[in-house]
Amino acid sequence: MTHQDFLHALVCPTTHTPLQLADDExxxxxxxxxxxxxxxxxxxNMLYPKELLPDDAREQYLYDQAFLRYDRGVSWVFxxxxxxxxxxxxxxxxxxxxxxxxxxxxxxxxxxxxxSALILEKVKPGGTAVLSDLSPNMLKLAQxxxxxxxxxxxxxxxxxxxxxxxxxxxxxxxxFGGINTFSExxxxxxxxxxxxxxxxxxxxxxxxxxxxxxxxxxxxxxxKANPLFRAEVPLEDVPPNVANFRLHWVFGNAxxxxxxxxxxxxxxxDIDLPIPGKDFVDNWRIRAxxxxx
Length: 293
Ligand SMILES: C[S@@+](CC[C@H](N)C(=O)[O-])C[C@H]1O[C@@H](n2cnc3c(N)ncnc32)[C@H](O)[C@@H]1O
Prior knowledge:
Bound molecules: S-adenosylmethionine
Mean pLDDT: 97
GO molecular function, one term: methyltransferase activity
Strand content: 15-25%
Radius of gyration: 21 Å
CATH topology: Rossmann fold
Distance between the termini: 54 Å
Number of helices: 8
Organism: Salmonirosea aquatica
Helix content: 25-40%
CATH superfamily: Vaccinia Virus protein VP39
Pfam families: Ubie_methyltran (PF01209)
Keywords: Methyltransferase, Transferase
Structural class: alpha/beta
CATH class: Alpha Beta
Low-confidence stretches: none
Protein name: Methyltransferase domain-containing protein
Number of domains: 1
Largest sheet: 8 strands, mixed
Number of strands: 11
C-alpha cells in the first residue's frame, strides 16, 4: 500500500464514509465538514473526537510527557514480573497474529514501536504496517526508530475507539498495553474487530493479574501499588462474530493476551432442532424449573 493508497483508504472515523483529499494533499475532509490534517511529517492526524473524553485526554497527556522514559520504564516493569523475557514475550504475542509476507496489519496504541518492529519483520517483503497511537510524542519516537526497508509503513494519530478504515481492511490487528484505560473500551473492541477481514486475527492484551495469583503476597503488593493490575479480562467486550478464542497470561501471569479469528457472522443456537428424546426434554425442563425460568 503506497502513501497515496493509504490516504485514500482513510475514511471518516465515525461514519466510515469517504474523505475528500485536498488538492495540495495536506488535509482530508469528511462529508460533515470535519477536517483531518495530513501535514508533511508522515503522521496523519485522524484523532476523534477532536476534544478527547477525560480518560483518553489524561492518557494522551501522560504519555506525551513520559515518552522519553517509556522504553526503560516498561522494560523495568516486565523485569519485576518474574524476570520475564520481554523480547521473547513480545515475539510470542506478535506470532499470534499469524502474519505472512505481503499482508496488511494495523497496530493500535503502538507507543514507541516495540512490537511494531516485529510486525514489520513479519509482513516483509512487500507488506504493509499501519501504526497508530493517541500520543503524538510516542508515535514520533516510533517513527524515528523503525527501519522501513522492504515494507510499507504508515502512521496516524488515532483513538482506538474510532478507527478511520472501512470494514475488513486488515489481515490482522494488534493492541497491547493501553486498552484498560480507554474511555470507550467496548467500542474499541468493536472497532478492532470491524476492520479485520473474516478469517483474520485480532490480538489484544493488557494488565490483569491471573485470578489464581491474586492472593500471593508479592502480587498483593503489585495489586496495591498499581490499580491497573486489578483489571478483569474484559471478556464481555469481545464482539459476537469471533471464533477460536484463546486467552493467555504473560509477564509473570500479570498481563492477559487474547487472540481470536474474526468471522463473517456470529454463531447461533438452533432452537428449532428437534429434541432427541424424552430424557432431554425432562432433564432440561427440570433444570429450567429449578433455575426459575
Ligand atoms: C503502555 S503503552 C503501550 C505501548 C506499546 N503497545 C508497548 O507495548 O510498548 C499504551 C499506549 O496506548 C496509547 N493509548 C492510550 N489510550 C489510547 C487510545 N484511546 N487509543 C489509542 N492509543 C491509546 C498510549 O498513548 C500509549 O502509547
